[in-house]
Amino acid sequence: MNKLIGFIGIALFFGSPAFACDEACQRERASAEHNVELPSYLSWQVCEDTKQTFMRNDLRSLENYRQTRLDTQYKGPMRNIKSFIEQRIQWLEECDNYLKLTNRGHIFKDEATTRSVFAAMEGVRRELDRAIQGATYLASGNEDANALIAGRFDSLFKILHDHRDYMMLRGQFVTN
Hints:
Structural class: mainly alpha
Order of helices and strands: HHHHHH
Largest sheet: none
């Protein structure tokens, strides 16, 4: 009986959170396993904050641009919003890579959602770039550039709103 109690005590001691692999441990493992140097400023909390900021503030900014300022006649605002999107893609991809390497999942719900968000963001960025360079859209059924870019934005917003609704149902996202 004493051996059983001793075994249970040892099992509980070594199974305690003190011996679990925390974020620092996961970072070291990922660095060694993948032979990469992970940026010291990245953490699970930083990535969560980046995602939350993107889903709250940045999404609102993109929706405002699409509703009130989208006009391919003006190249300056298109360049600004394209740079804004490129920067967010870079930040979110960096966090997604960090989360994957440290066995924490993906920046968004799962791999499929993450890929679809990045693809939609890249689609908006690509169309803005084409419009800035002066591409014509007559071959696409006489659709003007504003309507085509607005459609890309709407696709992105649908994916992000669906993800936000999913997060809200799980209690992982709270709006102010």
